[in-house]
Amino acid sequence: MSISIVTKEEGISSRKVFEIECKDIILREFLLEDLDAIYALTLQPEITDFLPDWIAIKEQRREWLIKYELVENNEFIEAVPNVTNINTYILRLGIILKETNELIGWICSGLKDELPPPNREIGYAISKYYRGKGYTTQAAQGLTKYLFENTNIDVLNAIALTHNTPSNRVIQKCGFHLNGNIQIENHEYYYYKLSKSEWEKCL
C-alpha cells in the first residue's frame, strides 16, 4: 500500500486541502460541499445502528459541519507539526474513492472520554455499497500511519460493538490487539489498543 501526504489547490482559509493518499482511496478533510454525501450516509441504518451520534436532520448536520467539524479539522491540521501536544485536537476525514471521487465514508480521530488515558481513538464508517472491498482497512492504516509519523501520539485505541464483525476485522487487520471488553452506554464493545512501537515492528 502506498501512502503519501498530498495537497491540492482548494484553499481552506489560507491553505490547501489536506489529504492522505492510499492505494484506492484518498482521506480528505471535510469540505462544505460534502454535506449531501455525509447526510446520505447518516441515513443508512447500516451506519447509524452502530453510530447513533451521527443521526441528525440535514440542517443540524450542516450546522455541525460548519461550526465544529470544519473548524476543528482546520485547528488540527494547522497544529501539526507546530504544536508539540495535539492530544486535544480532533481530525475528521472523508474516505474518497479515487475511481469516482465519491465520498463513501469517513474516518476520525479524537479523544474518547469513556476510555482510560491515553484515550485517543480512531473510528470509521463506510457506505453499505462499498463494504468488503478493503477500503476501510486502507483508511484505518493510512490514518494510523499519519498519526504515528507526524504527531506526538504514542497509543491509539479502537472500539467495536461485539456483534459488529466487519468493524472488528478491520481493527484486527490494522494490528490492534484486543485489550478486553468495555461497556459504554449499556452496550458491550471490544476494546483494542496499538502502540507506536508495536506498529513500527510490523513495518
Structural description of this entry:
The protein is α+β, with helices and mostly antiparallel strands and 203 residues long. It has a single domain, classed as Aminopeptidase (3-Layer(aba) Sandwich), CATH 3.40.630.30. It has 6 helices and 9 strands.
List the helices and strands and how they pair.
Layout: E1 4-12, E2 15-21, E3 25-29, H1 35-41, H2 45-48, H3 58-79, E4 91-97, E5 102-111, E6 120-126, H4 135-150, E7 155-161, H5 165-173, E8 177-184, E9 187-195, H6 196-201
Antiparallel strand pairs: 1-2, 2-3, 3-4, 4-5, 5-6, 7-9, 8-9
CATH superfamily: Gcn5-related N-acetyltransferase (GNAT)
Mean pLDDT: 92
Supply the CATH class. Answer: Alpha Beta
Structural class: alpha+beta
Based on CA atoms alone, the radius of gyration comes out at: 16 Å
How large is the share of residues in beta strands? 25-35%
Order of helices and strands: EEEHHHEEEHEHEEH
Oligomer category: single chain
How would you characterize the largest beta sheet?
Answer: 6 strands, antiparallel
Say how many strands there are. Answer: 9
Number of separate structural domains: 1
| C-alpha geometry | globular
Here the CATH topology equals Aminopeptidase
Low-pLDDT sequence parts: 3-11
Q: What is the end-to-end distance?
A: 11 Å
Tally of alpha and pi helices: 6
Residue share in helix: 25-40%
